[in-house]
Amino acid sequence: MDFPKEGEKIQIHSYKHNGLIHRIWEETTVLKGTQSIVIGANDRTLVTESDGRTWITREPAICYFHGSQWFNIIGMLRHDGIYYYCNVSSPFAYDEEALKYIDYDLDIKVYPDMTYTLLDEDEYEKHRVLMNYPDVIDSILKRNVESLKEWIHQRKGPFAPDFVDLWYERYLMYKE
Asked: Any idea of its EC number (predicted)?
């Protein structure tokens, strides 16, 4: 698998289990790109939903994608601290078109004090039946929700103190 180069601007494509596009982020700057991890940043980037609606992100964000973990993590820099939005998803794939992953509905929102809320369990159950998620996928996803909670508690990866701030400083070098 290819991987994006540092400084390169890429799109991010989120799909659903049925193969249909879910959401596209128009431009993210790659800060680190390897076969196992991609760290990117964006600020006020255009997002297109599957129904064609568009919106612009409101704040700078550091995006963390892993090649073997079934989740990705977005750290959003807001005036009152760093908020994280964690998507339970397939590991990423990358090709010349975009960084791609399958979004499996379950999300965890993490607040600056590191408390968190599991979101969209009802949406997950609906889509699990509708799109016929195999039992093995269901098991992997539930295991990765627990892994993600452990990362939060242990302040691992993007949840480590200064992780988002350090990568944001690097992003600012590319914006100049």
From this structure: 3.6.1.15, 3.6.1.6
